Amino acid sequence: MTTGVLMLDLAGTELSELERQQLQAPEVGGLILFARNYVSPEQLAKLMQDIRDVRADILVAVDHEGGRVQRFREGFTVLPPMAVLGRHWQQDPTRAIAWAHELGWLLATELRQYDIDISFAPVLDLDWGNSSVIGDRAFSAGHEAVTELAGGLMAGMHEAGMAATGKHFPGHGWVQADSHLELPIDTRSFADIEADDLQPFTALISRGLDAVMPAHVIYKQACSAPAGFSRFWLQQVLRQRLHFDGVIFSDDLTMEGAGYAGDFTQRCDLALEAGCDMVLVCNDPEAATQVLQHLQQSGVKASERLQRMRGRAVAEVDQERLAQARNLAAQLAGEA
């Protein structure tokens, strides 16, 4: 079974009647959860059961990276910002990679217990010291450390039955502007970006990276369009040059950085035409309704790649390992 190309969100902690109707639309293939949708493990379990009762096949996602970006906290392990692992990499790379693996396994294990398919992680951006919106979400300033630590996290996620999404292609860490609030412009040459920021994407694609989320950033020397709306970046570079055959998720089309592409339906069309398999429309119910109605009229076909992102069932969780991983997370979070 294929799934629709639109990922929506929810207003609160339970499904409204309108949301139930929207989730049944075949054009809707995904749902992303935020902090406003979470109160407790018990509430999340009920919400997820209600979602699955409406659409058993829908992809359910969350941004659950650790540090500043972790939507569920009470009742979940507090994960450290990934920069903590980067500091340990400088002292002992082998140990830091092993810890990244355990954190990836922990992150995915806790979410999969609620039948959540994916966390949009890992962050593959380099910390150039310019971007406050990236900052300590990045593992490191060096592409080798980012590659190896993110690779460890990805391997742990895979072990726990969760696909991994690298973001924000081809790299958001150089620019100072926050693409949630404005459209950043990266002035570097393609050669400079390829030599540094592209390296983690290139390496992890060869190791089985499942999905990529492009940045709402213009890399002006390479293409005049933001990466998420650019056939150059998504087709020529990602698909052809890097041989990536996984899923491409747009970043949220309601962000200011997406305004380049026009109104919400134009943003949807341009992202899909550029090569995105699924578009996210979040935090704006009216925009979501507009895009859904537009897709219902346009008859866009779903990508069969999307079903690869469904969470996998795994063996019963090793409780001793889970306790050790939680202790590790607490130790590293305390260093942040």
Q: Helix tally?
A: 11
Overall body shape: globular
Portion of residues within helices? 25-40%
Biggest sheet: strand arrangement: 6-3-2-1-12-11-9-7
Q: Proportion of β residues? A: 5-15%
Average pLDDT confidence is 94
How many strands appear in the DSSP assignment?
12
Span between termini: 43 Å
The major β-sheet equals: 8 strands, parallel
Q: Write down the CATH topology.
A: TIM Barrel
Structural class: alpha/beta
Can you tell me the CATH superfamily?
Answer: Glycoside hydrolase, family 3, N-terminal domain
Low-confidence stretches: none
How many domains? The number is 1
So, CATH architecture? Alpha-Beta Barrel
Q: Please report the first level of CATH classification, the CATH class.
A: Alpha Beta
Radius of gyration: 19 Å
Q: What is the helix/strand order?
A: EHEHEEEHHEHEEHHEEHEHEHH
